[in-house]
Specification:
The model has no long low-confidence stretch (mean pLDDT 90). Strands 4-5-6-7-9-8 form a six-stranded mixed β-sheet, with no helix packed on it. It is of the alpha/beta class.
Length: 274
């Protein structure tokens, strides 16, 4: 018997309308709006929505104020809460000021919410100025203490950087301390981990836990010739259903032209970390 279902979005890369960057002409906010409308029109009826990072593309306070209006619009349309975590293109202080309406700070943004017996834990894997991610010692200690008490129907962990090995993606682009995080998650009530960052759908297991690294709403990623990686016009989301025995993941692909936006070499991406 299904206990609950939720929708997993990621990598929205939104900015305020007046922003001028490489994505500003791609109507990325409209893609998010279309996704929320698609969820409603197809009567998916999720208990919540979670967006696993890169909410903005190098956002400032005004961007996060705008993104909050889009998130609230989607929440109102579906009648359910929308939770978020931060990705490598996000910035903590502007996010706290613009999205959360808090005093700006560089403190990691993490939380625990229980919805219909399923606990959602959001972690902040973003490292300022870096492409790869890490869960810091403070969050790991908090997570370990939180997981000491099981949730009625299990725990879902949401973060931006995957723990999975991703074909075509260098390990130093992913989560630097996945062994540490995996050790905290292993043997607990965690039934799934949802992530983003890689702009392709990847489903596997790590430490015996189902792990989903999803494509983005903004664009998809594809390996290309000569060690290149290209970004194409793509938009999708995942519907995750929680059952007594575990979870299932259904990928929904929105209509798109698959037009190439741009491409870059993996060496150039690696240089971004230096």
């Amino acid at each position: 018997m299904e206990k609950l279902k939720f929708v997993h979005l990621t990598d929205t890369h939104m900015n305020a309308p007046e922003t001028n960057n490489i994505f500003s002409k791609q109507q990325l906010t409209e893609k998010v709006r279309r996704v929320f409308g698609h969820i409603r029109d197809n009567a998916i009826s999720p208990a919540f929505v979670v967006i696993t990072g890169d909410l903005s593309h190098e956002g400032n306070t005004q961007d996060y104020e705008y993104i909050r209006t889009i998130v609230d619009e989607g929440s109102s349309l579906l009648g359910v809460p929308v939770y978020v975590v931060l990705g490598n293109h996000d910035h903590r202080a502007p996010f706290r000021e613009g999205f959360l309406k808090e005093k700006p700070s560089e403190q990691p943004y993490h939380y625990s919410h229980t919805i219909q017996g399923v606990r959602l834990i959001g972690l902040n894997s973003q490292i300022k100025g870096q492409h790869h991610g890490e869960i810091d010692a403070e969050q790991l200690a908090w997570l370990e203490e939180t997981l000491r008490t099981p949730a009625e129907h299990g725990t879902i962990v949401a973060l931006h950087h995957p723990l999975l090995n991703i074909n075509g993606m260098p390990a130093d682009h992913l989560l630097a301390n996945r062994e540490q995080l995996g050790a905290v998650l292993e043997g607990k009530d965690v039934i799934g981990v949802v992530a983003g960052h890689v702009h392709t759908n990847n489903v596997g297991t790590y430490k015996g836990i189902c792990h989903v690294a999803a494509t983005g709403t903004a664009f998809g990623g594809e390996a290309a010739e000569d060690n290149q990686f290209k970004m194409v016009d793509f938009c999708g989301y995942n519907v995750v259903s929680v059952f007594e025995e575990g979870i299932t993941v259904q990928t929904v692909v929105m209509p798109g032209m698959q037009e190439e936006f741009f491409r870059f070499s993996m060496e150039a991406a690696a240089a971004h970390n230096e």
